[in-house]
Amino acid sequence: MGGVPIYLPAPAPAHTNRANGRYPCGRMMQPPAYVEHQKAVTIRNDVNVKKETLRFEPDEGNPGKYLVAFTFDATVAGSITIIFFAKEGEDCYLTPMKESLYPSITVHFQQGLAQKFKQPSGSGINLSTFQEGELSKDNLGVYPLAVKAGASPDKNAESGSTNSQITQAVFEIDKGVYKVKVVKQLLWVNGMRYELQVIYGIGNSGDWVEVDGNDRGKECVVCLSEPRDTTVLPCRHMCMCSKCSKVLRFQTNRCPICRQPVERFLEIKVSNGTDE
């Protein structure tokens, strides 16, 4: 399904008493604040909207209106809901803020990979009726477009079990043409909210990974021998092995790649394709 999402818990940020890397005269040099080391949690994503395929297509039957289209994978049957001007509430519930103008559209689908979705004709949006500021950014948590792809409840699953992916997007003008720009993708699995993150430096996992062009090797940048399996947060550079990261966290609070402050280390074990 294009990789495994990573659950990133949100602990309180680390604080130090340092200013610009120096301590006031007369004080003893103290080691960097302790940095938390965590292991990634992988979860199953039953329905995945390929964000790079999300786009507008003209509604040939209704001039001036545009339909949302994209490609998605589904390992189970389910439904896709298109919501314009959606606000996320508790439990990832999406509220359409302009329901009277653009009612939500739900379309059911069956299991299958590389499926093509296109919003039904007549249900599209007329972009010319809005000001650019209403479309190019989220306003107070309201996104111009939200796509909710949900798996059908398993009859054998516990009551209340849910699995859905939410893609939130804004619209941008490129040479006079509106295009869709994905801002974030979320997963809602059995009452837990996950956010898909891009990790730089893995190089051999799925579509959710982007490799930093300036980082060619797959070895730890500290020992230059062990494979890298630890990501620095919040900058998301996967550049060290777990052993070196456990030593580094007592020596410095800077990422070896970009020198940004380190809040956490996240250990990610990447499958080599032999594991089931």
TrEMBL record:
Top-rank taxon, per record: Eukaryota
Classification via Pfam families: RNF157-like_N, zf-C3HC4_3
Enzyme class label: transferase
Family matches, as InterPro entries: LOG2-like_mRING_C3HC5, MGRN1/RNF157-like, MGRN1/RNF157-like_N, Znf_RING, Znf_RING/FYVE/PHD
Keyword annotations of the record: Lipoprotein, Metal-binding, Myristate, Transferase, Ubl conjugation pathway, Zinc, Zinc-finger
Enzyme Commission numbers on file: 2.3.2.27
Catalyzed reactions per annotation: S-ubiquitinyl-[E2 ubiquitin-conjugating enzyme]-L-cysteine + [acceptor protein]-L-lysine = [E2 ubiquitin-conjugating enzyme]-L-cysteine + N(6)-ubiquitinyl-[acceptor protein]-L-lysine
Ranges of residues in domain RING-type: 220-259
Pathway in which this enzyme or protein is active: Protein modification; protein ubiquitination
Homology family: Belongs to the RING-type zinc finger family. LOG2 subfamily.
Entry protein name: RING-type E3 ubiquitin transferase
Organism in which the protein naturally occurs: Rehmannia glutinosa
Lineage: Eukaryota, Viridiplantae, Streptophyta, Embryophyta, Tracheophyta
